[in-house]
Amino acid sequence: MNQVTIIGSGVMGKGIAYSCAISGYKVYLNDLNEEILQHAKTAIDRLLDGSFEKGFLKEANYISAKENLHYEVDLETAAKDSQLVIEAVLEKMDLKIDIFKKLDKICGAETVLATNTSTMSPTEIGAQTSRPNKVVAMHFFNPVHKMKLIEIIRGLETSDETVQFVKEVASQLNKEAVEVNEFPGFVTSRMNCLIGNEAMNMLMEGVASAKDIDKAMKLGLNHPMGPLELADLVGLDTRLRNMEYLYETLGEKYRPCPLLVKYVKAGRLGKKSGSGFYEYT
Ligand code: NAD
């Protein structure tokens, strides 16, 4: 494989594009308009510059990564020559299906189509294409350039060849893969959303402050980040969509905390909007 397309240049798409570019792949990053892509370019350039200045990237690698990155609004131009497409748009099934149907028409028969969904069904997405055996979920973690894991989720019709292919890509990206059979929320989101929701319920009930809930989880249970600061990093709108899907598919245990719902209504979306459970200046 030499070329990959990433659809969606938000929190995750930017990180996935960065990781693919420094690993030697030619990358096409696609989003709805030039302005969004320009923001993504600024952020990715800043990340590349920082990695180079701190000595994490050699000069040749830094230069080739910049050359490898292409920002393209037209979906057909962005995707037609890639061997792998990774979709990282909002956590909405109808939107994902619409994009996969388009990709199925645009891309060559051998192209693998992956979704970065946190919770949803690659089987359901694959069934809307002519290549369900080549549809898989590649679940990256935030921030992508730091997190080692890619959870690979096999849909009902996903072939062994496709799973092997994405495992090799994961290894090329210097990541570790775990293979999971499809079930809502997989391993990580199912567990993490529950912990985060419980922390939000505790905050709402006045059990402790946000800072102390996070501190207790970090220092007492050795979590690298507290559940509330992690939810802010993920984006509270994204977390709410994850919870709604898990509630719909797995039941009552996953009912989104009313405080999360209220924060999203208020536009407090976490780090990306400047405020969530914490304030970001
Ligand atoms: P985000 O809201 O930051 O970014 C989504 C991007 O998709 C936006 O830039 C938007 O303009 C773009 N987009 C929307 N419709 C599009 C279309 N039709 N074509 C091209 N681009 C389009 O979302 P995110 O946090 O990056 O999440 C993306 C996916 O990754 C979701 O499925 C989410 O569940 C999953 N995920 C998120 C995290 C996280 O920590 N945020 C972690 C793992 C997985």
From TrEMBL:
Q: Which PANTHER family match?
A: 3-HYDROXYACYL-COA DEHYDROGENASE FAMILY PROTEIN, 3-HYDROXYBUTYRYL-COA DEHYDROGENASE
Which Gene3D superfamilies does its entry note?
N-(1-d-carboxylethyl)-l-norvaline Dehydrogenase, domain 2 (1.10.1040.10), NAD(P)-binding Rossmann-like Domain (3.40.50.720)
In terms of domain of life, where is this protein from? Bacteria
Q: In which pathway does it act?
A: Lipid metabolism; butanoate metabolism
Q: Pfam families, alphabetically? A: 3HCDH, 3HCDH_N
Among InterPro entries, the record links this protein to: 3-OHacyl-CoA_DH (IPR022694), 3-OHacyl-CoA_DH_NAD-bd (IPR006176), 3HC_DH_C (IPR006108), 6-PGluconate_DH-like_C_sf (IPR008927), 6PGD_dom2 (IPR013328), NAD(P)-bd_dom_sf (IPR036291)
Which key words tag this protein in UniProt? Oxidoreductase
Q: What is this protein called?
A: 3-hydroxyacyl-CoA dehydrogenase
Family of the protein in this entry = Belongs to the 3-hydroxyacyl-CoA dehydrogenase family.
Ranges for domain 3-hydroxyacyl-CoA dehydrogenase NAD binding come to 3-182
Q: Per the database record, which ranges form the 3-hydroxyacyl-CoA dehydrogenase C-terminal domain?
A: 185-280
